[in-house]
Amino acid sequence: MEQTLALVKPDAFARKDEVVLKVVSAGFTVEKSAELQLTPARAAQFYAEHAGKPFLDDLCNFMCSGRVLAMVLSKEGAIKAWRELMGPTDSVAARSTAPDSMRALFGTDKQKNACHGSDSPEAAAREIAFFFPPSGEIPDLATGAAQAAPMEGGAAAEPAANAPPARSEGQVRAAALAKEYLETKLTGTLTGALAELAKDTPADPIAYLVDYLRKFNPHPQGSPYAKIVFVLGGPGSGKGTQSANIVRDFGWTHVSAGDLLRDEVQSKSTQGKMIGDMIKNGQIVPGHITIGLLKKAIVKATDAGAPGVLVDGFPRKVDQAGMFEKMVAKAEFTLFFDCPEKVMEERLLERGKTSGRSDDNIKSIKKRFKTFVEQSMPVIDYYEAKGSVRRINATKPVDEVYRTINAIFTEAMQVGNEKAASLTAPAAPPARAGSKPKPQAQLAEVAKMPSNKSEGEAGPALTRHVFSTALAPNVVAEQPSAEGQEMPASAAVPVGSETLPVEAAVAPEPAAPYVAPVVAPAETSLEAPAELSAEPADDQALDPEPEPKPKPEPALAPPPPPPPASDSDVLSPRSDQLQAAPELPEDSAQSPTPMPA
Ligand SMILES: Nc1ncnc2c1ncn2[C@@H]1O[C@H](COP(=O)(O)OP(=O)(O)O)[C@@H](O)[C@H]1O
Ligand SMILES: Nc1ccn([C@H]2C[C@H](O)[C@@H](COP(=O)(O)OP(=O)(O)O)O2)c(=O)n1
């Protein structure tokens, strides 16, 4: 598309909006524009081709008599088209021969003729570069790009009467860059914030703005929420039981996705009925519904000052993991309860005697196991590949399992606290009403508790063994898309040795080293699950309030490095293991309860 330079000269500057309107109506695109004040030196430079001609001085004086609007216009045949729209050089003549032209409408005579346009492609290139140099200077926002500029080459020029102070080309350019920067990085969010502010008229508008901007920051460096740890494992593996222990000792808040969904079922809404049917059938509720509920609960816990939130039973599908990262935050790590089906089945049947749950019966249990193997185990593979899984042997007695978990949380909290202490934050954030103090004393106590790391027989990836027969490659990609579930084939991502779900664009990489398990081609890993972009709108509908408040303390560090491979209870993956085997080892004899065929 051809481009040309157009100027609205000082005599027509006051009517520049009318000029621009006509420009746009004539089908031009204004690619760039800048309002500026020429200096005599710059004007002479611009009209260098007229050097030595008698009218040059007058022309330069006129061009410096006020501000001009410089524009880059584009259109097919833009150079000729703009010159036609400008009309003849002499405005007086233009009024009789081209009465609708710019010069006829906005100019006075041959010199004060309202507009300029390049007369050839070479001139257009030169003039565009003159006003819009390709290598722009970085704006000095601190000094204010729009402030008065020293005149070029020390030349003193009288500013036009009532005209703003003259600016050098560098500062004009800097102002344009600053404007662009603000428009791309801030204006949208800030405008939204101000609109909400005006609606809500809060007593403390500054605090309100701070909250809003943190929540809707499109370029977040950290999460505004309390730390999040995912608690995952098969049904009946003990997630709820152990979460209660963590809450007791570490002051975290337990948020169970299943409980939230069951509460929703109780509401008897249409959505609640749909959720109820899905739970009974062992199906997974669409991610945007669960994430909407989880987000509210996480915000509530954050506001109450919880140092962390245990998100129990989520994500249950790989695409939900990416969706959660995008819509809420990145988890610190995933605590995975490794437990064979037989053990879980016994526990669930026992629990079913008193739980009153519609799904604690053998028919639903079998369906839940199938769903877990096919859809939720790939989530573990996904996080294992990132080195962020803390795998627990969940077959042991409750106290033993908890000792291992306690050690993990103690270490994670200590690492986090050290990191927080080393930060040179100017001041601690103000205490929040109702915040619980961090249970340092409890931490110190639990840190002394013995760990059973050396006890017991090896607890190797039991679930992984048990579930191996069902974990075919590409299991996620090949799964049928059940009605009401949100993972279309296009959104599916092969797991393990193939592709991983897209990294949430907003999130930084975890600190734990990641060595790709076999091959994860970069180009395919960039493919976004469709759900990531498709569902946020729904979620907004579910979760409209701008309620989250800033996190009460600095984000803690990512989890500590995984314990040694010999550890029998905490089966964290290591990069060498991952590289060697997303496929399961053959020694499944170690599994006390092989999966029924
Ligand atoms: N380590 C354990 N050993 C024996 N029974 C357990 C253990 N952990 C949990 N249970 C029991 O198993 C059942 C399921 O545990 P729960 O914590 O509700 O599992 P989940 O939340 O993973 O579905 C409960 O009745 C619980 O008391
Ligand atoms: N993220 C989640 C969590 C639970 N659900 C549904 C499907 C699950 O079978 C039920 C019960 O989940 P819950 O975590 O309470 O229980 P289990 O760990 O399966 O014993 O809720 C879901 O669809 N999505």
Task: Supply the key terms.
binds adenosine-5'-diphosphate, Alpha-Beta Plaits, binds deoxycytidine diphosphate, about 10% strand, Rossmann fold, 9 strands, about 600 residues, alpha/beta, five-stranded parallel β-sheet, about 45% helix
The total of helices stands at 24
Q: Uncertain segments of ≥5 residues (pLDDT<50)?
A: 136-160, 424-568, 571-597
First and last CA, distance: 66 Å
* Neighbour order of strands in the largest sheet: 6-7-5-8-9
Which CATH class of the domain at 227-418 is shown? Answer: Alpha Beta
How would you classify the helix and strand content by structural class? alpha/beta
| Helix content bin | 40-55%
Q: Which molecules are bound besides the chains? A: adenosine-5'-diphosphate, deoxycytidine diphosphate
Q: From the coordinates shown, what is the CATH architecture of the domain at 227-418?
A: 3-Layer(aba) Sandwich
Major sheet characteristics: 5 strands, parallel
Please name the CATH topology of the domain at 227-418: Rossmann fold
Backbone CA Rg = 33 Å
The named CATH superfamily of the domain at 227-418: P-loop containing nucleotide triphosphate hydrolases
Beta-strand proportion: 5-15%
The overall strand count is 9
Mean pLDDT across residues: 70
Form type: elongated
Active site: 116 (pros-phosphohistidine intermediate)
Biased composition (Pro residues): 553-565
Biased composition (Acidic residues): 536-545
Catalytic activity: CMP + ATP = CDP + ADP; UMP + ATP = UDP + ADP; dCMP + ATP = dCDP + ADP
